[in-house]
Amino acid sequence: RKMELSSGKLARFADGSAVVQLGDTAVMVTAVSKTKPSASQFMPLVVDYRQKAAAAGRIPTNYLRRELGSTDKEILTSRVIGRLKHFIYSQNYSLSFILCQILCNLLAVDGVNDPDVLAINGASAALALSDIPWNGPIGAVRVGLVDGETIINPTRKQMSSSALNLVVAGAPQSQVVMLEATAENILQQDFCHAIKVGVKHTQQIIQGIQQLVKEWGVVKRTVQKLFVAPEEIVECAKKLAFNKIYAVFTDSSHDKISRDEAINKIRLETEEQLKEKFPEVEPYEIMESFNVVSKDIFRNLVLTEYRRCDGRDLTSLRDIKCEVNMFKMLHGSALFQRGQTQVLCTVTFDSIESSVKSDLISTAVSGIKDKNFMLHYEFPPYATNEIGKVTGMNRRELGHGALAERALKPIIPQDFPFTIRVTSEVLESNGSSSMASACGGSLALMDAGVPVSSAVAGVAIGLITKCSLENGAIEDYRLLTDILGIEDYYGDMDFKMAGTNKGITALQVDLKLPGIPIKIVMEAIQQATAAKREILQIMNQTLAKPRPNRKESGPVVETIHVPLSKRLRFVGPGAYNLKKLQAQTGVTVSQLDEETYSVFAPTPSAMHEAREFIREICKDDQEVNLEFGAVYTATITEIR
Q1: How many degrees, rounded to 5, is the angle at CA 416 between CA 439 and CA 332?
Q2: In Å, how far are 145, 568, 619 from 584, measured between CA atoms?
């Protein structure tokens, strides 16, 4: 199918703008960058993807009838585009800390083609057509797997029967920039084949954007000021702190807190000495000099000595401990501990009416439907021994929860009679808490008696590379299994993969490099698969299969038959009896057909009470069973 890229008609004041269209779905993306550095020294990229109701021919259903806050879908799509931040800027531009904003505006949606992949390609085109320096362009496609056949950019109807939902972003020379996937427990070889096919098709999009840039004759701006550490200060910091930092990073007796404290102590001492020797330099140059030294030491230990700071070899897992049935009153619970990452997961059952309801706009724009399985992830500040605001869910928590939810959803039976809510609260964090949530959530589901098809485990794979100073090509690399927080911080990749013993259910790849070869991706999948199976063996020692029955404290669902002749008494005038039943007993009643009702009770005792109530209001000793369609003689005794 044909994807169209255009520019020069809309939003011409922006540094760069592009409109991407597939079928009748169109997205406009703008890129604007400041010319002066920001005060804070971090990668300043802001991405905002917005779905407009008008694009679907609808009016917002809220009280004000206008677009308000961002929906979950908008936030998750923004995060996918933002995951390309390490690729978006050129090396010099990223070191200038100049704020860049990418806005994605949905212009029209046809209900056939999803706009999220178009937004990624639009961001690539907008940046390529601007004067903002960057490493692009990139291209992105969605890959589906229907009846064993890979489909590029499948329609929404095709996706409904697809066993794979894979978004691939690729760079020139068939480099992989980003991967995001949900899979119905597909085999590793099928998954790897889909990635290769996806990367191949991204090259066509890249060539199209390059042709557009050539036609426009784009000239990139020159960056004036770079926030880099002077070589002289770096060498001095190395002489002052090398041995001390090396001793900390090679002392495996340290845990997260003690290691951080030791490094911070060395940092403060070194910075004071550097300030005395270089009194005229700016503070960030001294701070960055220490960062460069500590990062180089950490990475070289892995690259040259094959040593990790906690004493493990490159493919070893941290110690794993599992516990289930933490609290008897909970429907299901599990504690998953991997090293110093600790996650408490709970399972709660409720009626089908408690499922997540999708509003009309989200359904029309994104095809999102109601769902009766959800996973909510919480990351309180005490998990890293910090003080912070405890407010509503932030974007990071939403993204991590969505990943763990996608990992577990394929094992949930479709005909399960309850809505399932899994909560994952991170109690301690030292890397890969989202994959720990998938492991803990799987155990909690089995503890609750959910007949899952198999257990799920997840792991994060890291990457340390040595790149050429001339062209940035990767000359040497090491893959790390089950990374720590510090290995994520100093490393080049966070490769999260979850699945069962049979196959893969979810994948998310976040890179700090401008792309990696497919070969490294395949090796990472292989290494993650081996680790996943090892984790599953440990989990199975705690709970190998779902409990045969749900807990006594859990909810109950029953189907009752109410004849048409008794329906009026059962419901009551103005639904009085039905409302009274639900208020007194706490049950939820749903009508299935003319004579059948589903009754959900939060506890067995509530169901017993509801049965008695229904029996009482429906009993009639004088009742005569009348034949439908027959003619009877009767006496009128009262007219109301």
Answers
A1: 40
A2: 50, 19, 19
- Can 320-542 and 556-618 be said to share one CATH topology? no
Superfamily classification of domain 320-542: GHMP Kinase, N-terminal domain (3.30.230.70)
Q: Which amino acid, one-letter code, is at 495?
A: F
- Which 3 state secondary structure label does DSSP give 228? coil
Q: What is the C-alpha separation between 491 and 389, in angstroms, rounded? A: 28
**Torsion from C-alpha of 261, 265, 266, 270, nearest 10 degrees:** 150
Pick the CATH number of 3-167+186-216 from 3.90.550.10, 3.90.1140.10, 2.60.120.260, 3.30.230.70: 3.30.230.70
Averaged confidence pLDDT in the chain: 90
Rounded Cα–Cα distance for residues 359 and 58 (Å): 11
Quick one: CA dihedral 487, 489, 490, 494, positive or negative?
A: positive
Q: In this structure, are residues 294 and 269 in contact, taking their beta carbons and an 8 Å threshold?
A: no
Element housing 489 (H / E): helix 485-490
Bridge-partner residues for 487, per DSSP?
A: none
Q: Report residue 281 CA to chain centroid gap.
A: 42
Residue range 231-305 forms a domain whose CATH class is: mainly alpha
Whether 201 and 117 have beta carbons less than 8 Å apart is answered as no
* Chain segment 169-210, per-residue pLDDT in tens: 999 889 999 999 999 999 999 999 999 999 999 999 999 999
Higher pLDDT, 41 or 496: 496
- The angle at the Cα of 277, spanning 273 to 279, to the nearest 5 degrees, equals 105
DSSP 8-state secondary structure symbol assigned to residue 35 = S
Buried b (16+ CB within 10 A) or exposed e, 7-42: beeebeebbbbbbbbbbebbbbbbbbbeeebeeeee
Q: Strand (E) positions, 34-99?
A: 45-50
Structural element, H or E, at residue 349: strand 341-350
Helix, strand, coil shares, percent, the chain, to 5: 40, 25, 35
Tokens of 183: 């899979």
What lies within 8 Å, CB to CB, of 527 at 6+ separation is 315, 461, 479, 481
Measured CA distances, 316 to 151, 313, 625 (Å): 37, 6, 73
| CB distance 342 to 336 below 8 Å | yes
The DSSP-derived string for 252-284 is TT--HHHHHHHHHHHHHHHHHHHHHH-TTS-HH
| CA–CA separation, 77 and 88 (whole Å) | 16
Whether residue 410 contacts residue 505, with contact meaning beta carbons closer than 8 Å, is answered with yes
Would you say residue 307 has pLDDT above 70? yes
H/E stretch holding 229 reads: none
Q: Pairing between strand 493-499 and 457-467?
A: antiparallel
